[in-house]
Each structure stands twice: as structure tokens, then as C-alpha cells.
Amino acid sequence: DFQMTQSPSSLSASVGDRVTITCRAGQSVSIYVNWYQQKPGKAPKLLIYTASTLQTGVPSRFSGSGSGTDFTLTISNLQPEDFATYYCQQSYTTPYTFGQGTRLEI
Amino acid sequence: QVQLQESGPGLVKPSQTLSLTCTVSGGSISSGDYYWTWIRQPAGKGLEWIGRVYTSGTTTYNPSLKSRVTISLDTAKSQFSLKLSAVAAADTALYYCTRLSAGTYFDYWGQGTLVTVSS
């Protein structure tokens, strides 16, 4: 399996901050990394696909970058509704695998 | 707007078979642009991909579960289903059905259904 490792596991920030979450793949996954946001009691929501493409309807304060093994999700100007858990996921090959999650707290 | 809705028993006894169905509305389950997949999440833990089915009926499973999993498609009912045999407590989780677009990203998710394995 292609292991995906996120850092940090948790992160504290304030409204208006800029935060970056990192995801590292155990092997190159080209640009095939997606990012999801999950709030308590809800299904994950797609934010970014193929490393840097913003899903329709997702605010532009979310951005993604990277290729190969190293990827980042950046959230600028944090809003109250952004406090959630974030997951990266590789789709380069099956089995699709997810990072362990990053909990973003106030 | 595509919607997915999981259904099935919330409680399954150990060693029995877990059976869930996902009903798709607002879009065609027969479209060749998508796979239909199952993902699960134990309480307080991360996400595990279980497997996918294509419109042709072709399936791909996670090797960690392959010996116990069957995913099938019923285009007439706009549904796809999951069967997981010989369940144990470790299979207790929230089960999500999802749409996989371009073979790449999960863009639509059901709300999830909790399945508990217990006698």
C-alpha cells in the first residue's frame, strides 16, 4: 500500500490565521492527491483534487500544492467554519489510502 | 444534485454477513464516468477504502478485505451494494458509499450508516 503520512496530527489556530497541513506519500504518487474536510457527525467533503484543483463551490482560501511525495494544503484567513479534521488521500493506485487526519482546532 | 443514501441493518452478529445498499439519485449510476465505492471509518479513527464497482460490474477490492468483500451493482434500481462476510468487532464502523470521479476523487458521499458487530 501507498502510505500517506500527515503532519501535524493536530493544530491550534485562530480566526484569520494562515495554516499549512503537510502530507507525505511513501512512494511517488505524481499529482494524485486529494484533500477532504470532515466535521463531526458529517461525511468528508472534497476540497482539492489532483493536488491543486479546487472543487466547485469550495472557497478560494483553500489551496493545494505538491507532486511526487510531498503535498500541502493551505488555508488562508481561517474562518470559524474551517475548524474540522482534514484528510489527504492518494488515488495514484489502488488500494486508495488516506492520511491519518489533521485536527484543526481553535 | 447527486445524492447517495446508505441503508441496511445497524447491528450484525459476529461471524455473520454485513449487507448494505446505497441508493443513488439525481444522476445516472450507469454513466461510464464514475466508479461507485464503499469507505468505512471506525469511531474516532481514519478512513479505509473497501472497494469499488464500475458500470460494467468490474470490481476492485482492498487486499486487506478482499477475501470477505463483494460489491455489486443493480443499474435498474440505481443501487449498489456491499457484502462483508465473517464480520468481527473490528468491522464496527461508519460505512459510507461514495462516487469516484475520473477514477481519482470521491466527490459525492452518503451520510454514512453505523454498523455495530455485537452478539
List the helices and strands and how they pair.
The complex is a heterodimer of chains A (106) and B (119).
Chain A: E1 4-7, E2 10-12, E3 19-25, E4 33-38, E5 45-49, E6 53-54, E7 62-67, E8 70-75, E9 85-90, E10 97-98, E11 102-105
Parallel strand pairs in A: 2-11
Antiparallel strand pairs in A: 1-3, 3-8, 4-5, 4-9, 5-6, 7-8, 9-10, 9-11
Chain B: E1 3-7, E2 11-12, E3 18-25, E4 34-41, E5 48-54, E6 59-61, E7 69-74, E8 79-84, E9 93-101, E10 105-109, E11 113-117
Parallel strand pairs in B: 2-11
Antiparallel strand pairs in B: 1-3, 3-8, 4-5, 4-9, 5-6, 7-8, 9-10, 9-11
What is the structure about, briefly put?
The complex is a heterodimer of chains A (106) and B (119). By secondary structure, chain A is mainly beta. Chain A has strands at 4-7, 10-12, 19-25, 33-38, 45-49, 53-54, 62-67, 70-75, 85-90, 97-98, 102-105.
Unreliable spans of chain B? none
Number of strands of chain B: 11
Give the topology string of chain B: H per helix, E per strand. Answer: EEEEEEEEEEE
The overall pLDDT of chain A, averaged over residues, is: 97
Going by helix content, strand content and strand pairing, the class of chain B is mainly beta
- Beginning-to-end CA distance, first to last residue of chain A: 34 Å
Order of helices and strands of chain A: EEEEEEEEEEE
The helix/strand class of chain A is: mainly beta
Query: What radius of gyration of chain B results from the CA coordinates?
Result: 13 Å
Number of helices of chain B: 0
Helical fraction of chain B equals under 10%
Largest interface: A-B, 22 and 19 residues
Shape of chain B: globular
Which runs of chain A of at least 5 residues are low in confidence (pLDDT < 50)? none
Summarize model confidence as the mean pLDDT of chain B: 96
Based on the structure, what is the oligomeric state of the protein chains? heterodimer
| Number of discrete helical segments of chain A | 0
Count of β-strands of chain A: 11
- Approximate strand percentage of chain B: over 45%
Share of helix among residues of chain A? under 10%
